[in-house]
């Protein structure tokens, strides 16, 4: 799969920064305005899909290996479990410690909620981008396997 | 005699019924996948319609809002939380089905289920 | 406001019917995309901005995957013979289902006046217990955090299944050639 024309590549360079910035805003401020970990993760995956589609398969093959997305996926899932176990310091399994440490309606007032949002965002984004990369970039034809026998 | 206030519920379930008709009666694998996606839409819409309050506001609270007015005029936040989960699980479902469809097409060369059904010894 | 919701729901029904009966596969996929976008506007009118953003972004990803899955058969028109028996069963079953639903809905709450037995507790004490101003996220990640853990597990398993299906060669071929001796 080749990349697209020069116009698409130039526009992608300008636009991708804003897409990732919007995804990070949705993840971090999920407890104060509409958004959250799930939406931010899917938007991250969409930005990555745009990069892969406009620069082509061969270029992406040189940058990431087979296992990059799977490793990030596992890191996100383990981070979410660790935040859940942190609640034992407050007495219950998923307790929201550090709630109300800052003033209300600011970033620090949510306690473990922004941290859990970040973990879920990383997990869902790596998940969906990994499946896209496996379907399009790393998928090889079966004809090569038949030729070996 | 009939009150027509539950007409939106019936429309959500008509979407569900179209999805079920597609899964049962169609022979192309891509159409079966599209049928499962339509079933997903119908169920999510139905569950959100149950929690709606007429003239309500979204359950997001700002600093300059009267607390009693907020409690009396906001829509139900619990179904919305569960349907966010359900939509993202639907994405995983479409990913798995597309992977299966790609492999089936490579092995058999067609999307027609009547031709794929013949088991080869 | 209810009138707008019903007009958009009628559009979703029409787009789904077009998607089901189209002759080319690319038309099917695009019609499902249009139905999803209309559904996102319905979510916005129902007071759920989180869901509207989620539906739009998810719809774009689903379109990419489905267009990849159709592959080279995008423009092929196919004519299959309709099996009358299964068609009659499908349409008859759908009609019976909708009729029974119509009678079952007489005992549901009216549209627009929800019960909210549980949500009153969450709405009254939500801000002081969780510290989140967005009550949907407060319910998802503090009051109902177990469900979020279960959902993360379900996505993980389905993605591992997708990886296992797309693998290039299986284990038997890797192990050696003495299986088909």
Keywords:
heterotrimer, A: mainly alpha, disordered C terminus, C: 181 residues, mainly alpha, extended
Q: Radius of gyration of chain A, Cα only, in angstroms?
A: 19 Å
Order of helices and strands of chain A: HHHHHH
The CATH class assignment of chain B is: Mainly Alpha
The general outline of chain A is elongated
Describe the largest sheet of chain A: none
CATH architectural grouping of chain B: Orthogonal Bundle
Largest chain interface and its two residue counts? B-C, 81 and 90 residues
Counting structural domains of chain B, the number is: 1
What's the overall geometry of chain B?
A: elongated
Going by helix content, strand content and strand pairing, the class of chain B is: mainly alpha
**Helix and strand pattern of chain B:** HHHHH
User: What is the CATH topology of chain B?
Assistant: Helix Hairpins
Question: What does the radius of gyration of chain B come to?
Answer: 21 Å
The count of helical stretches of chain A stands at 6
Estimate the mean pLDDT confidence of chain A. Answer: 82
Proportion of helical residues of chain B = 55-70%
* Share of β-strand residues of chain A: under 5%
Low-confidence stretches of chain A: 141-149
Report on the structure:
The complex is a heterotrimer of chains A (149), B (121) and C (181). Chain A is an all-alpha fold and 149 residues long. Chain A has one domain (6-148). In chain A, 66% of the residues lie in helices and 0% in strands. Chain A has 6 helices and no strands. The radius of gyration of chain A is 19 Å and the shape is elongated. With 121 residues, chain B is mostly helical. Chain B has 5 helices and no strands. Chain B has helices at 7-25, 29-50, 67-73, 77-108, 113-116. Chain C has 2 domains: 1-114; 115-181, no CATH class. Chain C has helices at 2-21, 25-45, 49-70, 84-104, 119-130, 135-143, 145-166, 171-175. In chain C, helix 1 runs antiparallel to helix 2, helix 2 (25-45) runs antiparallel to helix 3 and helix 6 packs across helix 7 (145-166). Chain C is extended and about 60 Å long. Chains in contact: A-B, A-C, B-C. Chains B and C meet through helix 1, helix 2 and helix 4 of B and helix 1, helix 2, helix 3, helix 4 and helix 5 of C.
């Amino acid at each position: 799969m080749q990349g697209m024309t020069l116009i698409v590549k130039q526009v992608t360079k300008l636009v991708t920064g804003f897409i990732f910035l919007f995804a990070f805003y949705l993840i971090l401020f999920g407890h104060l305005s509409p958004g959250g970990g799930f939406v931010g993760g899917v938007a991250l995956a969409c930005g990555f899909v745009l990069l892969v589609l406009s620069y082509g398969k061969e270029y992406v093959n040189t940058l990431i290996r087979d296992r990059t997305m799977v490793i990030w996926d596992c890191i996100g899932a383990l981070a979410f479990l660790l935040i859940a176990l942190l609640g034992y310091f407050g007495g219950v399994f998923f307790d929201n410690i550090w709630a109300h440490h800052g003033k209300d309606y600011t970033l620090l007032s949510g306690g473990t909620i922004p941290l859990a949002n970040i973990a879920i965002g990383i997990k869902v984004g790596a998940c969906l981008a990994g499946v896209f990369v496996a379907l399009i970039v790393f998928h090889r034809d079966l004809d090569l396997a038949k030729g070996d026998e | 005699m009939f009150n027509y206030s539950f007409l939106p519920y019936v429309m959500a379930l008509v979407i569900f019924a179209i999805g079920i008709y597609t899964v049962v009666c169609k022979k192309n694998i891509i159409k079966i996948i599209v049928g499962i996606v339509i079933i997903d839409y119908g169920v999510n819409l139905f569950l959100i319609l149950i929690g709606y309050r007429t003239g309500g506001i979204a359950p997001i609270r700002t600093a300059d809002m009267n607390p009693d007015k907020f409690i009396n005029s906001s829509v139900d936040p619990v179904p919305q939380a569960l349907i966010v989960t359900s939509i993202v699980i639907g994405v995983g479902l479409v990913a798995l089905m597309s992977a299966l469809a790609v492999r089936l097409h490579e092995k058999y060369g067609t999307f027609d289920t009547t031709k794929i059904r013949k088991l080869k010894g | 406001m209810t009138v707008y919701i019903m007009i958009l729901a009628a559009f979703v029904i029409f787009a789904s019917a077009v998607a089901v009966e189209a002759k080319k596969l690319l038309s099917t996929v695009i019609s499902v995309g249009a139905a999803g976008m209309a559904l996102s506007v319905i979510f916005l009118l129902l007071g759920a901005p989180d869901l509207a953003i989620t539906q739009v972004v998810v719809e774009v990803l689903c379109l990419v995957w489905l267009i990849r899955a159709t592959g080279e058969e995008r423009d092929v028109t196919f004519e299959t013979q309709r099996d009358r028996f299964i068609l009659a069963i499908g349409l008859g079953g759908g009609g019976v289902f909708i009729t029974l639903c119509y009678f079952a809905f007489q005992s549901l709450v009216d549209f627009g006046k929800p019960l909210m037995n549980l949500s009153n507790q969450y709405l009254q004490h939500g801000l002081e217990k969780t510290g989140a101003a967005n009550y949907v996220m407060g319910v998802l990640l503090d009051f109902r955090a177990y469900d979020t853990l279960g959902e993360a597990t379900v996505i993980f398993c389905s993605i591992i299944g997708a990886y296992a299906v797309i693998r290039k060669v299986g284990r038997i071929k890797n192990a050696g050639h003495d299986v088909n001796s």
